[in-house]
Amino acid sequence: MAELHVELVAADRQVWSGKASLVVARITSGDIGIMPGHQPLLGVLQEGPVTIRTTGETGEGTVVAAVHGGFISYTDGKLSLLAEIAELSEEIDVERAERALEQARAAADAAAERRADVRLRAAAAASGR
């Protein structure tokens, strides 16, 4: 089975690294799916969940991360997601994100509202909701 080597890196840490059969992310032109053999790509990441279908020694599974801006690059079987901020769905405190969303709406803070919404969508995607 053909695989991608995926690196998801935030400004402050390496978030996830491993093998995958598919990665779905949002770029400026819309959602994109990257599979082994994809044409070389360089794009700007938009806020949104990134879904990684994992393969390899740990078996098949899904990793979901909330990503807030950055870049995506694919060439020669290696996909790099370089995010300003990224967190895995299991790192997200849903209750805290819900409170942050409510506070952002009350304060009419569109940027904070988008960040909280992305976190909640990533957590929901990982739990199958």
Oligomer: single chain
Q: Helix content range of the residues, please?
A: 10-25%
Going by helix content, strand content and strand pairing, the class is: alpha+beta
What Rg, in angstroms, do the CA atoms define? 15 Å
Report the mean per-residue pLDDT as an integer: 91
Order of strands, widest sheet:
1-2-5-6-7
Q: Strand percentage, roughly? A: over 45%
Poorly predicted segments: none
What's the N-to-C terminus distance?
A: 29 Å
In short:
With 129 residues, this protein is of the alpha+beta class. It has two helices and seven strands. The two termini are 29 Å apart.
Summarize the SSE layout with pairings.
Blueprint: E1 4-10, E2 13-27, E3 30-34, E4 41-45, E5 48-54, E6 61-75, E7 78-88, H1 94-106, H2 110-127
Helix pairs in contact: 1-2
Explain this structure.
By secondary structure, this protein is of the alpha+beta class. The two termini are 29 Å apart. The protein has helices spanning 94-106, 110-127, and strands at residues 4-10, 13-27, 30-34, 41-45, 48-54, 61-75, 78-88. It is globular, with a radius of gyration of 15 Å. The protein is built from two helices and seven strands, in the order E-E-E-E-E-E-E-H-H. The protein has a five-stranded mixed β-barrel with strand order 1-2-5-6-7. The model has no long low-confidence stretch (mean pLDDT 91).
